[in-house]
Input
Amino acid sequence: MKDFHAGESGAQAGGAALLASGRSDQPEMNRQGFKRFRRKALHRDRHAPLSDVDIPHNLPARIEDEWAQLQLVPPSIRRLEMESAPLVNLHRDDPAAAAFDLLRTRLLQALRDHGWSRIAIAAPTAGCGATFTAVNLALSLARIPGSRTVLMDMNMRAPGIGAALAMPGIGDMRGFLAGEVAVRDQLLRISDTLALGLARRPEHDASERMHDPRTARALERMTTALRPGVVLFDLPPVLAHDDLAAFLPQVDGVLLVSDAASTTAAHIEACERVLDGQSRLLGVVLNRARRAGADPANA
Output
C-alpha cells in the first residue's frame, strides 16, 4: 500500500481514479488497493444486501416503506462546486466522472464478493479531500437504478456534507446517535436512490459519541429500517483524532484518501497501524495526482 504514485490518468493506468481538483490533476486509485482483501469474509447478518435487486420480494410492507417515507429534499446541485472541482453529477462529461464510476464499480465488486456494505472514508490528515470523495462516490453509486445508498456525515468535528450539497443547518446527528431522534426524522432522501444523514453543527465530544454503545444501536436501527445496499461514513482525519479508531467496529472496511501534495508514506503506514487487527484497508485513493505529460504551468 505504500507504492501509490501520481503519474498516469485513471484511464491509462486501468485503475479507479477520482475527481481532479484542477485541469491537470487526476486522482488515482492505488492499483494494489483491492488486493489486500482477506479471502475469508466476516459475514454479519446485520448488514443489508447490496441493492433492491437482492432484497426478498416478500419483505413486510413496513420495512419496504421506510425508505419511501423519508423526506425528499433535492439539493441545489446545479449551482454547486466544491472548491475548484465540480461534483460529478453536474459535469458528466468530465473524465473524473468516469473515474468515480470506475471506483464505484470496483468497490461494489469487492463488497459483493465479501458480503460487506459499511465503508468508512477518511484521510490521514485534514485537507486531503475525504468529504469530497465521499460525496462524489455516493452520487456515483446513486446513479445505479434500484439501488439504495446512504451517506452519513460522521465527521462531527467539522461536518461538511450538508454544505457540499447546499443543505447546511440540517440534521441532528448527535440526537440520532443517542437514540433521541428517529430514523425518518434524521435521514432524508435527495433522490430515489440516495439518502443522507447530516450534522448541522460541530460537536466538542465527537470521539465519545463514537464510543457510546447507543451509536451502534442507532446505526443498526437505520440499516434495518432502510435496507441500504451501501452505507458510506465520512469521518475525521485518522491521525488527528481517535474518532475513526473508535468507530471501526461499525464498518467493514476503510477507504483512505491521500493527497499527492501532502500525504507521505509515513502517513499511510501510521494509518495502517491504526487499522491493524481492527478493520480492513480497502484501498488508498490518491487525490490531486498529476497526469502524465501535463504542463506544470497549467496545474
